Structures are given as structure tokens and as C-alpha cells.
Amino acid sequence: MADSPTTTYGGYLKLDELLACQEPRTRAHDELLFVIIHQVYELWFKQILHEAELLQRRLEEGGSAGALHTARRIAKILKTVVGQLDVLETMTPRQFAAFRDVLGSSSGFQSEQFREIEAVLGRRGFPASDLRDDERLQAAVSRPSVFDSLLRYLDGKGYPIPREALERDTARPWEADPGVQKALLAAYADESGPAAEVCEALVDVDEGVQEWRYRHLKMVERTIGAKIGTGGSAGADYLRRTLFTPSFPDLWEVRSQTEAASAEEVPVHDG
Q1: Residues 90-147: tens digit of each pLDDT
Q2: Which of 83, 117, 148, 169 could covalently link to 144 via disulfide, CB atoms 3.0 to 4.6 Å apart?
Q3: Does the structure show a pLDDT above 50 at 232?
Q4: Nearest to 150 by CA among 68, 46, 245
Q5: Closest by CA position to 231, among listed 93, 102, 100, 104
Q6: Which of 213, 222, 3, 214 lies closest to 97, judged by CA?
Q7: Do 111 and 41 contact (CB within 8 A), yes or no?
Q8: Is 178:161 a contact under the CB 8 Å cutoff?
Q9: Pairwise CA distance, residues 55 & 57, whole Å
Q10: Helix-strand-coil percent breakdown of the chain, rounded to 5?
């Protein structure tokens, strides 16, 4: 039997194809940076979607440790995505203007993968133009979101999730539910328990998405100011409108309902 071909670093990673994917359209020095940053975004978005699928499966199987690990990984990836903006912000407005015209109708708001991430996290009500030719997005808005999977996880752990929340039409936007918030408060009452840790890890994910929106907003403002974004998008104004829209509003709302533990509830440690 012939030996199998030796796997090389470049072959395994398909570096010839990968490094041939950057095709700047001008001689402007900073266009290559712009292309690479956005291509890396899309690679990380692909990984987030890959991890989110595993996260939902682990939540619905009741696997606390696995769900916690995966949610924390997603949050770390989002931190990395946000950090890339530090590199992009080394580009001045004049440097961006040197190649902006060749972007034509393209815009970061056209990222199909980021729209899918939003749908997986619970966003519904996308414009018909976004849904029309995007089968993956259509599928994502029709199946349970990460928060729906969290509710099933909590139900499996014995927390009192209302039946109507578990049996709801997941293609419809989520509406804050006092009954669900009561169950979340019960989960948070055991601060060291796995359910509370899982909930907090999802808050980290939610905060990571909001942090990315904020940093993206500031990057757009410092690069193009109040100009219309590429592709005719509303640029900074669009980002500003979506900035404080959490994916998991109930996880944020229960913070205003949390009371300090009584003296009897505070654990006492020897030492």
C-alpha cells in the first residue's frame, strides 16, 4: 500500500488559496489592511456560528459544563473581533478616502454571517430584502434561538419556566416574560450553581455583541463622520439605533430585581 501524501502546514491550511483571496483594487497602501480585517471578521463569524450550534445542543442536552465552556469561547472570540478594530483605527480618514470609492455598493451591513448570528441570538423581523435570497437566514429565524435553548436547559434543571414560553412560536420575536424572569431569579439565587454561571456566560456573549456594535460605531464615526455609509447604508446612525438592543433582555432585566442576600443566606467560610 502506498504511503499517504505528507500533510504540510501550507497544504492543510490551503494557504495558496487563502493568500490569493486579497485583491485590492487600488494602489492605496491601506486597502490591503481593510480587506484582510474584514475577511478575518468573516472567518471569526463562521466560527461563532459553529460554536453557537454546539452551544444550543449542549444547552438542550442539559450539559452545564459544556455549555459554559462553549459560551465562554464565543465571548472570547467576540473580544478578539472587537480588538481587531484597534488595528483598523490606525487608518486615518484620508487613508480610507483613498480607496473608498472602489467599494461601490458593498457594505459591512451586507454580512450574511453577521445577520445569521443576530438571528441565532434571537433577532427576528429582518427586512424582506435580507430574507429573500438568504436560505441560511430564513432557517435561522424559523428555529429556536439561543435563549430558547437556555429556557429548555433551565426547565430541565427544575426551574419554573412557563409552559407557554417553552412552547412558543420561535419564529416570532421574543417578548419579555415575568414568569421567565422569576425563573431566572431563582437560578441566580444560587450564585455558585451551574445555571447561574451559564446565564452569566450568555450575558458575556450579549455584552460582546453590544461592545462590537459600539466600537464599530466609533470606528465609523472617526473614519467617515456623518457621511452616508458605503452601499447607501445609514452608517453611524444605523449602528447608533441598534447599539442598546440586547439579545437576551430578560437576563439584563432581572438585575434590577435582584436583592441582596440576607445574612442567613450568605455562606460562611472557615479560615
Answers
A1: 999 999 999 999 987 666 667 899 999 999 999 998 889 889 989 999 999 999 999 9
A2: 148
A3: no
A4: 68
A5: 104
A6: 222
A7: yes
A8: no
A9: 5
A10: 65, 0, 35
What's the CA gap between 76 and 83, in Å, rounded?
A: 11
Question: Which residue in the block uniquely carries the three cell numbers 463562521?
Answer: 46
Instruction: Report DSSP state, residue 8.
Output: -
Grid cell for residue 202: 450568555
* Rounded Cα distance, 58 and 70, in Å: 9
The amino acid that residue 30 corresponds to is D
C-alpha dihedral, 128 to 132 to 137 to 141, nearest 10°: 50
Per-residue pLDDT of 34-58, as tens digits, reads: 999 999 999 999 999 999 999 999 9
Residue 100 is inside which H or E element, if any? helix 93-100
Q: Which three cell numbers stand for residue 109?
A: 451591513
Residues 6+ apart with CB under 8 A from 28: 95, 98, 99
pTM (predicted TM-score): 0.89
Name the nearest CA neighbour of 248 among 58, 69, 62, 71: 71
Report the share of the chain in percent with pLDDT over 90. 74
DSSP string computed for 139-198: HHHHS--HHHHHHHHHHHTT----HHHHTS-TTSPP---HHHHHHHHHHHHSTTSHHHHH
* Summary mean pLDDT of the chain: 89
DSSP 247: S
What are 63-91's pLDDT values in tens digits? Answer: 999 999 999 999 999 999 999 999 999 99
Q: Residue 30 above 50 pLDDT?
A: yes
Give the sign of the dihedral formed by CA 194, CA 72, CA 250, CA 266: positive
Length of the chain: 271
